[in-house]
């Protein structure tokens, strides 16, 4: 069947200035990508082969298990749900999931389920959680407690236990991070479950925010278990972080099959309204599917291991240069003292107060790290008064090595 409604308009509105603007933008993006080490967005595959699908209005509106007859990629979405459920040991016969617009939506969905299960519950999350949790608590009008963390980003388990103790058995909804946004610290579900048990807290809902490590740690031997083999209730991750889809997306999986309290008919679009978003992007689903079809489990495992090896490489380069840093076990995030603004901007470093971090996801190369560390050393040597407060690096459990800058005394 030949059907081409596009070309008449292509001829009516030919590209003019648009091409030049886009050319400039493309060059800028290429340059920025060669200095992109501050945020956790991999660059694994080139998805240009999917360009023909840009012609279509792909919309996975509604529930992936009740697609309409229109232009959608729900079939591919369900294959992705199968793939990741297996990885996270979720029996999809009992559970459910969908592809979200990103990590925040997955977290929101998980917490909504928890609030539905326990309408009067208190939401508990650590101070190193992603900023979206305060927004979620606000939108859902949930009372919340923020658990303090140690200076290196680890959850303060004693403080957590005190919060649980004060609840005196009242229900709670808990978020744990795999790992935290800034330090990549792992908030261990097994340790937290032990505390809940010891304090007689049996009415809880446990959500795992595995935005970055979700598709990475299951392939690392010895990494902490954080999946549905434990009594967790939902888990979400981002598709544009470790997996590096060029369009933001994510996945949420949940142990309950029955729809949430808000789930109803979406007759107008021929589906069921079980997702937080109405219209949902179907192109990112296709991209993720294409990535997984090519990589499979073995490819993901290889990339996860390479990412951790590169993190070790970054740590040893920083150490050799005499620069203190923090990197947690099984983590690909490396925290160090914040350099001057020019360097931070040039390398798009994620910064917070006196600290900055880099993330060694696929796409970052040893060559980039080498250049970055030499510029960092140069930057500190040129600007010795800059950000000399060592708080946090000395208090951390991961022993930092001494910083080379003469005025600094890290003890
Ligand atoms: C731990 C964690 N959770 C959630 C998010 C939010 O993810 P998204 O930007 O995909 O909404 C992030 C993003 O950095 C994150 O690090």
Mean pLDDT comes to: 92
Helix segment count?
10
Shape: globular
Order of helices and strands: HHHEHEHEHEHEEEEEHEEHEEH
- Binned, the helix content reads 25-40%
Strand content: 5-15%
CATH class of the domain at 53-294: Alpha Beta
Terminal CA distance reads 75 Å
CATH superfamily of the domain at 53-294: Type I PLP-dependent aspartate aminotransferase-like (Major domain)
CATH architecture annotation of the domain at 53-294: 3-Layer(aba) Sandwich
Low-confidence stretches at least 5 residues in length (pLDDT < 50)?
Answer: 387-392, 394-411
Strand line-up of the largest beta sheet? 1-7-6-5-4-2-3
The largest β sheet comes out as: 7 strands, mixed
Named once each, the bound ligands are:
pyridoxal-5'-phosphate
Mind telling me the C-alpha Rg?
Answer: 23 Å
Overall strand count: 13
CATH structural fold name of the domain at 53-294: Aspartate Aminotransferase, domain 2
What is the structural class? alpha/beta
Question: Could you give the topology of this structure?
Answer:
Layout lengths: L6 H6 L4 H17 L40 H14 L8 E5 L2 H15 L4 E5 L5 H8 L4 E4 L9 H11 L4 E6 L11 H10 L5 E6 L24 E5 L11 E5 L9 E3 L4 E3 L9 H38 L4 E2 L6 E5 L3 H6 L3 E3 L2 E5 L6 H17 L29
Parallel strand pairs: 2-3, 2-4, 4-5, 5-6
Antiparallel strand pairs: 1-7, 6-7, 8-9, 10-11, 11-13, 12-13
Helix pairs in contact: 3-8, 6-7, 8-10
The structure holds pyridoxal-5'-phosphate.
């Amino acid at each position: 069947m030949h059907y081409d409604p596009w070309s008449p308009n292509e001829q009516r509105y030919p590209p003019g200035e648009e091409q030049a603007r886009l050319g400039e933008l493309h060059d800028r993006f290429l340059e920025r990508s060669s200095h992109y080490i501050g945020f956790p967005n991999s660059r694994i595959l080139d998805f240009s082969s999917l360009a023909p699908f840009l012609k279509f209005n792909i919309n996975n509106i509604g529930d992936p298990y009740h697609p309409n007859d229109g232009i959608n990629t729900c079939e591919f979405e369900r294959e992705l749900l199968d793939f990741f459920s297996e990885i996270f040991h979720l029996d999809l016969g009992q559970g459910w999931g969908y592809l979200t617009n990103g990590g925040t939506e997955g977290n929101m969905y998980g917490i909504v389920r928890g609030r539905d299960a326990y309408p009067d519950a208190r939401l508990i999350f650590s101070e190193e959680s992603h900023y979206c949790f305060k927004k979620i608590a606000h939108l859902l009008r949930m009372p919340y407690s923020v658990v303090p963390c140690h200076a290196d980003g680890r959850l303060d388990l004693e403080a957590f236990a005190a919060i649980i103790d004060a609840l005196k058995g009242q229900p709670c909804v808990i978020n744990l991070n795999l790992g935290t946004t800034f330090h990549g610290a792992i908030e261990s579900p097994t340790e937290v479950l032990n505390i809940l048990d010891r304090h007689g807290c049996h009415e809880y809902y446990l959500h795992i925010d595995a935005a970055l490590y979700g598709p990475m740690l299951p392939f690392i031997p010895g990494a902490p278990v954080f999946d549905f083999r434990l009594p967790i209730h939902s888990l979400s991750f981002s598709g544009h972080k470790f997996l590096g889809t060029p369009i933001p997306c994510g996945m949420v999986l949940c142990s309950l099959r029955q729809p949430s309290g808000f789930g109803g008919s979406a007759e107008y679009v021929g589906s069921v309204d079980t997702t937080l978003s109405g219209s949902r992007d179907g192109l990112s689903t296709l991209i993720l599917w294409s990535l997984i079809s090519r990589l499979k489990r073995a490819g993901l495992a290889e990339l996860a291991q390479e990412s951790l090896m590169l993190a070790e490489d970054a740590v040893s380069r920083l150490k050799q240069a005499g620069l203190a840093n923090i990197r947690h076990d099984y983590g690909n995030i490396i925290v160090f003292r914040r350099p001057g603004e020019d360097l931070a901007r040039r390398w798009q470093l994620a910064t917070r107060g006196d600290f900055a971090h880099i993330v060694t996801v696929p796409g970052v190369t040893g060559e980039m790290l080498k250049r970055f560390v030499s510029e960092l050393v140069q930057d500190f040597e040129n600007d010795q008064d800059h950000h000399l407060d060592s708080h946090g690096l000395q208090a951390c459990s991961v022993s930092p090595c001494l910083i080379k800058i003469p005025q600094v005394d890290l003890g």
